[in-house]
Amino acid sequence: MNLEDVAKRANVSTATVSRVLNNVGRVKHATKARVIQAVEELKYTPNLNARMLAGGPNRTLGMIVSNLENPFFLDIFRTLEADAHRRGYEVLVANTDYRPQHLVSSVRLMIGRRVSGLAVVVSEMKPSLIRELADSRLPVVFYDVGAARANITNIKVNYQNGMQRIVEYLYGLGHRRMAFIGHHTTLEPLNDRKRTFLEVAQAYAPRLKVMTVGSADGPVGGQNAAREILTSGVHPTAIVCVNDFMALGVLRELHARRIAVPDELSVTGFDDIGLAQFVSPALTTAHIPREEIGHLICEALIPSHPGHREHGHEVLVDTELVVRESTAPAQTRPAGRRGQPRRPVAVARK
Amino acid sequence: MNLEDVAKRANVSTATVSRVLNNVGRVKHATKARVIQAVEELKYTPNLNARMLAGGPNRTLGMIVSNLENPFFLDIFRTLEADAHRRGYEVLVANTDYRPQHLVSSVRLMIGRRVSGLAVVVSEMKPSLIRELADSRLPVVFYDVGAARANITNIKVNYQNGMQRIVEYLYGLGHRRMAFIGHHTTLEPLNDRKRTFLEVAQAYAPRLKVMTVGSADGPVGGQNAAREILTSGVHPTAIVCVNDFMALGVLRELHARRIAVPDELSVTGFDDIGLAQFVSPALTTAHIPREEIGHLICEALIPSHPGHREHGHEVLVDTELVVRESTAPAQTRPAGRRGQPRRPVAVARK
DNA sequence: TCGATTAATGTAAGCGCTTGCAAGATTACG
DNA sequence: CGTAATCTTGCAAGCGCTTACATTAATCGA
């Protein structure tokens, strides 16, 4: 079932069929109708591979993320996809599970499919890969890693700043012993986050007691990390998580152990995923504007004014502290409950 | 940058390059080495579109889901993808957001890309589409909709049975006023679920009081539905949700209103998504073996014994009641708390 | 050492589609 | 009614790759 079959049935040449299918060039109305009818009768579906090969319009973007399961990544994907669809583009996703090797093969796959733009929203990254992508002419967006180049746009979130706000806020509530939960700290960008926490903590309060533990991304990882902390003997009054997704597991573990949050222990996340409002207690976190990021990616990847793509710039996205129910003043002594958890205080989000 | 460039650089013909790249036919060791070197030096990446066109091995599956955000769908995708990768396949996802029209275009897209197999895991479905897919030679798996045909495998979950267990269980706990929360009930397969609930409820307990409300999939939808129920004046003692994802929102709304779950009101979900264990109280639900479903899909779509594909069968997957913390005996009178929530009772899951 | 095998590589015909160019069909206008 | 200008449509050359088949090189037994 190919162009030729359709052409025959409509008594035209393949060129004409192609023209009506792509709505390009001029075709007499009657002919067009005949072609369309033939297409429908034959239930013809163009072979996109052939189309791309032949140099047809390439309306496909690629996106590579570390962990689709983490709503943070999924949200970015969803807005990107929505934007892309609106402009007639498709987007292909690939998931790396934080495995650098997997990243490499995913990039190759995307290049192999000849996507017209690639978003790399991952926390792991080999420098050689960055170079390879920089060398290619492909428009690329990196999130959180690498540096801007000719064909590369760079989006970074001001993690430092967000972490600072969180620590500052907790410190203001009287917390002096904090624990940090991260994951995959062997991967540089993530280790970087841990380091950021430590630096901020040290800078802000030299006499702060901190501990860090690492695990896997996700609730289960958070749960494990929480266990480790709780059995460590450090007895922090606040647990700072590298992201909300892990904080979910922390909350659960504390609940299971009958440790009241926030009365006995405060917990913070990072990202402000939708679920952060749907757990109890609702999570205090730093909001990362994922929709904005999705839009930015789309902007950078799809040439709006044909031929006049702006590239090579770097965008720094700021975070916003969102105080909900999972944080409260530090307990001086490890006592029992202290009444109802307090309601949201600072920023109110829709 | 194409095969020919590589061929030139390695002083061989394109055929030879192709052979070493696909590891097919016999090539002298020395030549192979030269080719590989040329490939690396040139950073050559084969054009997959051309490869498919030329009749190379098609190792791509497609999967269409209604709502990637719902962990239920995501889980299936993840196991399918893992299985597929293990066999050297890629899988393309498309998201429909429960929009039938979107389903149609997604199917066309997949067919256009000439995937070698397609999994349609959606809750909306036009009969015409089923027919169209049945007519195509493409191996297809439908989840929860349609019927088995020559090239179509059908996976159904025994929703009826699962719902029966839930209602039965709640009835056993003394619940006599139940509310059902669904979503997109204009879509047949989902309306079907609502109907199932009603039938089961009626059959099991003719004097049961029920109400149903519909909304959008997800926590927000669950929250809205919960509000509707709570202001309806029906005062159910148990809320049965069509899936866990919505139940999350219900739990949150009840928490916000200081309605104790399960002491004042019991809540059940369906699916047993990972998060069900990570909310408080942990969700009582019916477990749908998503991994098994993912494996089944992979089995059906990838010919294991080349040329000998089993098709046209129908698989009925059974559910399992998982009792956690969100259900308890019904309150006789609308009183206050009753101590700690009880621990898991029945099936213990890893 | 010399055909006869067998291994290694090259040749070239597509796969289904797009598109520049040219030919044929229409229309306009004097 | 003739010719130039304008529309429509067809022709055919690829796009980059795979693969059946042809060709050449290497190997072997007698």
Helical stretch count of chain A?
12
Shape of chain A: elongated
Structural class of chain A: alpha/beta
What is the CA-based Rg of chain A, rounded?
25 Å
Write down how many β-strands of chain A occur, each being a DSSP E stretch of 2 or more residues.
12
Describe the main β-sheet of chain A briefly.
Answer: 6 strands, parallel
Mean pLDDT across residues of chain A: 89
Output the helix-strand order of chain A. HHHHEHEHEHEEHEHEHEHEEHEE
Q: What oligomeric state do the depicted chains represent?
A: homodimer
Distance between the termini of chain A: 51 Å
Query: Are there runs of chain A of 5+ residues with pLDDT below 50, and where?
Result: 335-350
The percentage of residues in β strands of chain A lies in: 15-25%
The spatial strand order of the largest sheet of chain A comes to 2-1-3-4-5-11
* Pair of chains with the largest interface and how many residues each contributes: A-B, 43 and 43 residues
